[in-house]
# Entry
Amino acid sequence: MIPVYPTVTSPQGTEATAATSPPAPAAVPKLSIRDLRLSYRTNGSRQLALDGVDLELAEREFVAVVGPSGCGKSTILKIIAGLVKHTSGEIRLDGEQLGDEPAAGVGMVFQNDALLPWRTVRDNVRLPLVIAGKGSDEQAQRVSELLEVVGLTRFADYFPRQLSGGMRKRVALARTMAYDPSLYLMDEPFGPLDAQTRIRLGGEFLRIWERVGKSVLFVTHDVEEAIALADRVVVMTAGPGRIKSEHVIPIPRPRDFEEVRFTEEFHRIRRDIWHELQSEPLPGPVVG
# Structure
């Protein structure tokens, strides 16, 4: 079953869910990155892509990463997921050091939805459950629950080619949720969508996350999207990528993904982040 967290009352007397309350300090962070470096050889010389990246993510925390093209923000996700081997540094998940292989408990949502075109929506979502060896009854129940969560129950027997871009993104999210990772890595998942669909899907995703309450590391070029979604926004320098600054987002949850953009606090944070990004040099070769 999809976990639903109990309601708690804030000091102001408003209700929120435990999943959306500010993450409590923990002795062991959900994700810890220490002195992460990545270099690669090109045209006979060594290029530094990431240089001493330090980052922590708490249990149930939503952290967005923004930065110039080529700063390595997507590469960080691929390193955590075990898709790219880093040069040096340490990555720990729940205190356990990750190796070079794909890590258990980590789910990645790519910019490309990567759905299997010959499988229906139902069977695309079912795939992680089949790989995990779940029984057919459990598979059917879980898939039904997830399709209801992402609002695609009546499209269960459609093929990806019959869906809009936003609907395919929801299928990809449901498939990742079927895997039930404790950490979601999201690489510009709404990037290819038009502005109206991005806002609508962003709002739907925010509601889903506030219900499920897992840790998320979210890479985006869209500063407004980052502020509307995240508990904290991390700004990276132009390549070689380093952490330039972090901005705590003090906007209460639950949030309205669209309405929050009209608040004074939102505009202040957006202005601060844009000033930091504009002070960076124009990007060089794109590495992620």
